[in-house]
Amino acid sequence: MEPIAIVGIDCRFPGAPDTGAYWDLLMRSGDGVGKVPEQRWDADEFHSADGAEGHSNTVEGGFIGDADAFDNEFFTISPREAAAMDPQQRLLLQCAWRAIEDAGLSPQRLGGTDTGVFVGIMGNEWAQLHLTDYAKVTAQIGSGNGYCMTANRVSYHLNLKGPSLAVDTACSSSLVAVHLAANSLLAGECDTALAGGVNVAVTPALSIFYTQAGLSAPDGRCKPFGAEANGIGRGEGVGVVVLRRLSDALKDGQRVYAVIRGIAVNQDGRSNGLTAPNRWAQQDVLAAAYKRAGVDPADVVFTEAHGTGTTLGDMMEVKALGHHHADRPGKPLALGSVKGNIGHTEGAAGIAGLIKVALALHHRVVPASRYATKENPALQLKQHGLRLLKAPLRLPSSPVLAGLSSFGMGGTNAHAVLESAPPAAARPAPHDKETAGGIGCGVYTVTAPGAAALRRNLAAQADAVAARRVSAQALAWTSNQVKTGHRYRFAVPAHDTADLAARLREAADDPDLLARLTAAPAGKPRTAFLFTGQGSQYGGMTAGLYRDSALYRRFLDEADDALLPHTGRSVRDLILAGDDDVHQTRWTQPALFAVEYALARTLTELGIRPDLLLGHSVGEYAAAVLAGALTLDGAARLITARGALMQQLPEGGGMLSVRAPLAEVAPLVDGEPLVGVAAVNGPEATVLSGDLGVLERIETELVSRGLTTRRLTVSHAFHSPLMRPMLEEFALVAREVGGGVPDIPVYSTVRGRVLDGEAMDAVYWIEHIGATVRFQDAADALLDTGPTHLVEIGPQPVLSGMVRRLGRRDRAGAPAHVLPVRGLDSGGRDVAEALAELYRGGAEPRWEAVYPAEERVPQPLVPYVFSDEHRYWAARRPTAAGPADSAPAAVPAPAAAPAQAEPAAAPAGVAVLERPAAPADPLSDTVQEVIAAVGGYETGDVFAHQRLYEDLGFDSVMIMELKTRLDERVTGLAHITVQDLLPRLKTVADLTGFLHESGATVTARTAPTAQEGRTA
Question: What is the tens place of the pLDDT at every residue in 268-283?
Answer without folding.
Answer: 998 878 888 889 999 9
